[in-house]
Design brief:
By secondary structure, the chain is mainly alpha-helical. It contains one helix and no strands.
């Protein structure tokens, strides 16, 4: 016949196992939630990075066009400044 001490020991062991099982389940749920949230955040970061990269590429392209136009205008002015005056070769 089991003694009170052995019954108490078995009861406490059973309670500890149940508690450990509940904690393991909660940890598993928390880990799944964290993994799902991390995936969501990674996807959001990828979308934001792609969108900002596209915006940056457009801005860089616009800046390059403006810079080329400015440089072209300056070269034309410089060429006009150093060009020799037109000489009229037609006989009069």
């Amino acid at each position: 016949m089991p003694t009170l001490a052995s019954w108490a020991e078995e009861y406490l062991r059973d309670q500890a196992a149940r508690h450990s099982g509940r904690l393991a389940g909660q940890l598993d749920n928390a880990a799944e939630w964290a993994a799902d949230r991390t995936d969501d955040l990674a996807q959001q970061a990828a979308c934001f990075t792609a969108r900002f990269s596209d915006q940056a590429a457009v801005r860089i392209g616009d800046y390059a066009v403006a810079l080329a136009e400015s440089l072209g205008a300056r070269l034309i002015r410089l060429g006009d400044r150093f060009a020799s005056p037109e000489v009229d070769d037609r006989p009069q």
